[in-house]
Amino acid sequence: MLHRRAILQGLGAAAALTPAAGLAAAPATQRKIWRVGGKRVRTVDIHAHVAPDMTDVLAGTPFQARDRSADKRMAVDAVRLARMDRQGIDVEVLSANPYWYDMDRELSARFIDRLNGRVADLTRTYPGRFYALACVAMQHPDLAAAQLEDAMKTRGLRGASLGCTVNGEELASPRFDPFWKKCQDLNATVFLHPQDSALVTGIAKRTTGGGSLANVIGNPLETTIALSHLIFQGTFDRFPELRIAAAHGGGYLPSYVDRSDHGCLANPDTCPPSDPPPKKKPSEYMKRLYVDALVFTPEATRHLAAVVGPRRMMIGTDYPFPWVDDPIETVMTTPGLSDADKVAILGGTASRLFNIPA
Fold first, then answer.
1. What is the mean pLDDT of residues 211-220?
2. Which residues have a Cβ under 8 Å from the Cβ of 4 and sit 6 or more positions away?
3. DSSP secondary-structure letter at 262?
C-alpha cells in the first residue's frame, strides 16, 4: 500500500514541476496485487498520457494556445496513483502526444529539450512507478535522432513516442530513415499513437454526429494506415531490428491483415517492379510488431494474440481516458493464454522493451 506521506511528498514535488499537478486529490488506495500461477507479477501500462506545462517556452509564439497542461486529467498526481492502485497497475510508461511537428528548427530544439527534461523529472518524483518516452521533432529527422539519443543516454528516457504522421507525411518516407536508423542503433522502442485522425485520414466529414466516430473509427484507422506504409514502403526491410509498438491493438490491421497479403496478387498493376513489394507477406511482419492490448474483450485479446503473438502484447489503459476499467482482468480471462503468456503481457515484455529494472 502507498503510504500517505509518500503520496503527499510526491504531490509537493510534482506541483513544483507542473502547477496543475498538485491540484487534484484522492485518498490513498490499497494497491491491487496480481498473481499468475500463485506468483506476484509486476504490471506495466505502456499507454498513459502526460502533458507537462510548457507555458514558459511557448509564451509569445504561435504555439501558445496548444499547451496542453491546462487539461488537469493529464497530471501525475494522487488521482492517477489511486486509479493505478485500484486497477493493479504497478508502473506507467508516460508519453506526450505530439503537437509540435510544424515548429521551426530553433524552437523545436528549445521546446523538446525542456519538454524531455520535465517528463524525466516526473519519473524521478515517483521512482519505480513511472518511466517515460522521449518526445522528438520528427519534422527535422536529424534533430529528432539527436534528441532521442540525448533523451535516452542523459535523461533516462526509455524510447520515443511518435504520432502516426508528420504534417501529413508518412513515417515510412525515406526522409525519416536517419531517425529509424538511430532507433535501431539504440535498441529504442517507439510507441506510435494517432492524433487528429479524422482529419489526416480524410474521414472528418463522415464521422460527424453521434458515436465519437472520429475517435472510435479514426484512431485505429490512422494506425492501420501508418503500419501498412511501414510494411509496404520497406521501412521494416531497411531496418530489420526496428522495434515499434502500436497503440489500440495496432488498429484494424491485425483483424484483416490477410487481405493485405492478397493485395498485390489481386491487383498486380498497383505493385510495379519500380515500387517493389515487401520481402515477406504483410502478415509475417505482424510478428515483428508490438501492440498494446487495448481491445476490450477476452475474445478480441485472444485473436490479437493469435496474429501478433502473446509475447508481443502489453497492457495499455489510455490513461486518463476511461476506455477500460479492469484491463488486467481481461487478459487473465482470455482463453488459450499460458501463465508465461500472461506474465509477458502484464509486464514482462514491457519491462524488457523499456529497460525497466526488476
1. 97
2. 28
3. T
Residue 28 has a pLDDT of: 64
Q: pLDDT higher for 18 or 90? A: 90
Strands laid side by side in the 290-292 sheet: 159-162, 189-192, 243-246, 290-292, 313-314
Task: Output b/e per residue, 306-330; b: 16+ Cβ within 10 A.
Answer: ebbbbbbbbbbbbbbeeebeebbeb
The 3-state DSSP composition of the chain as helix, strand, coil percent (nearest 5) reads 50, 10, 40
State the pTM of this model: 0.91
Distance of CA 69 to the CA centre of its chain: 19
CA dihedral 345, 323, 302, 31 (to 10 degrees): 40
Whether residue 9 lies inside any domain: the answer is yes
Joined grid coordinates for residue 298: 477476452
Res 264: pLDDT? 86
Q: What cell was used for 58? A: 511557448
8 versus 59: the higher-pLDDT residue is 59
25-42 pLDDT tens trace: 555 679 999 999 999 999
Query: 306 lies in a domain?
Result: yes
C-alpha to C-alpha distance for 228 and 239, rounded to whole angstroms: 15
Instruction: Please check whether residue 358 lies inside any domain of the structure.
Output: no
Helices and strands: H and E segment counts in the chain = 17, 12
Q: 3-class DSSP state for residue 135?
A: coil
Please indicate, yes or no, if residue 23 is contained in any of the structural domains.
Answer: yes
Residues 94 and 81 sit within 8 Å (Cβ to Cβ): no
Write the CATH number for 9: 3.20.20.140
**How many angstroms separate the CA atoms of 192 and 171, rounded?**
10
Amino acid identity at 334 = T
Q: How many domains does the chain have?
A: 1
Give the model's pLDDT for residue 18: 37
pLDDT tens-digit map of 53-73? 999 999 999 999 999 998 999
Q: Phi first, then psi: what are they for 76, rounded to 5°? A: -95, 100
Nearest to 36 by CA among 352, 355, 328: 328
Query: Domain range for residue 27?
Result: 4-353
